[in-house]
Design brief:
10 helices; alpha/beta; seven-stranded parallel beta sheet; 2 domains; globular; Rossmann fold; three-stranded mixed beta sheet; UDP-galactose 4-epimerase, domain 1
Length: 323
């Protein structure tokens, strides 16, 4: 059987470094090539170095580089996961987000049209929906209006519009995914869960914005990987799919659960001022559309056998990643 050529951007990032490992370990019929700019040298810790994966280091905004990669790989499917994604950084360096998330997306769209890619999968975020103001508000579905509230989510929404426009103008077949918060192995220390784990291991203060009352929905990265694989095979073209777990917790609850599992750390809590003007209170998305394809999440968040405990055990065994 001939190989399916899969090109992934953002392969040194958290989600897609895990996705490449998942695909290489389970689906040898796919040959994987990937692109990442490696803007942080620590990202080299996440790249999958092995046969069946060809890595190209370069910037997705460089159309000469991107076209050369497409010419070599001739991808059947493109998964565009590369992005500037740290919201706090977007508040002070918005131009970088516009360049990477908007211009970079257009460069990849142009190459995908030129090389007649069969499927273009664009990884967006639940933050494009904005924020919910109460615990009782209904979760967003794929038809909910977009209302981004920071440069990061605004540029991701812009990327979505470019992808949809390419379908109308050029017939590019796409799937857009909007995921809730992910957690799991190889997530950068700047994110909430790994920074809490690292600080507790090192007996440092654990920073929580405000009073930690913000509510987020948590999905284990391996459940996300399985969702992407299912969408490659069964997703209806030119559609949007939410990816979520229904497991919502306040940030302070996440901290307390990590302390419970690790058996220490409660005294390290420190509430700090929020750098954002009014932190988004709650994100919550409905993924019935994805579930109708046969997907379900396998990891529960809490408990000694849950996804959070699995993540803590990974970092305890691989503390070098947190350095």
């Amino acid at each position: 059987m001939s190989k399916i050529n899969l090109l992934i951007t953002g392969s040194a990032g958290f989600i897609y470094s895990n996705f490449i490992r998942y695909m290489r370990n389970n689906f040898p019929e796919y040959h994987i090539s990937s692109i990442d700019a490696i803007k942080d040298i620590k990202a080299t810790n996440s790249i999958y170095y092995n046969r069946g994966h060809d890595f190209y280091m370069g910037d997705i905004t460089d159309h000469h580089f991107v076209n050369n990669v497409f010419e070599i790989v001739k991808p059947d499917i493109v998964i565009h996961g590369a992005a500037e994604s740290f919201v706090d950084k977007s508040l002070i360096a918005g131009q970088e987000f516009v360049k990477s998330n908007v211009l970079g997306t257009q460069v990849l769209i142009d190459a995908s049209i030129k090389y007649k890619v069969n499927k273009f999968i664009y990884a967006s975020t639940d933050e494009v929906y904005g924020a919910l103001d109460s615990e009782d508000e209904k979760s967003w579905n794929e038809e909910s209006p977009l209302n981004p509230r920071n440069p990061y989510s605004a540029t991701k929404a812009s990327g979505e519009l470019l992808v949809k426009a390419a379908n109308i103008s050029h017939g590019l077949n796409y799937i857009i995914t909007r995921s809730c918060n992910n957690y799991g192995p190889r997530q950068p220390r700047r994110n909430l869960i790994p920074v809490l784990i690292a600080n507790i291991l090192e007996e440092k203060e654990c920073p929580i914005y405000g009073q930690g009352m913000q509510i987020r929905e948590w999905l284990h990265v391996l459940d996300h990987c399985k969702a992407i694989k299912l969408l490659i095979e069964k997703g209806e073209m030119n559609n949007v799919y939410n990816i979520s777990s229904g497991q919502e917790y306040r940030n302070i609850e996440v901290f307390n659960e990590i302390c419970n599992i690790m058996g220490k750390g409660n005294q390290l809590l420190k509430f700090i001022p929020d750098p954002r003007r009014g932190h988004d209170f709650r994100y919550s998305i409905n993924c019935d559309k994805l579930k109708n394809l046969g997907w379900k999440h396998d990891f529960k968040f809490k408990g000694t056998d849950g996804g959070l405990a699995h993540t803590i055990n990974f970092y305890k065994a691989n503390q070098w990643i947190l350095k």
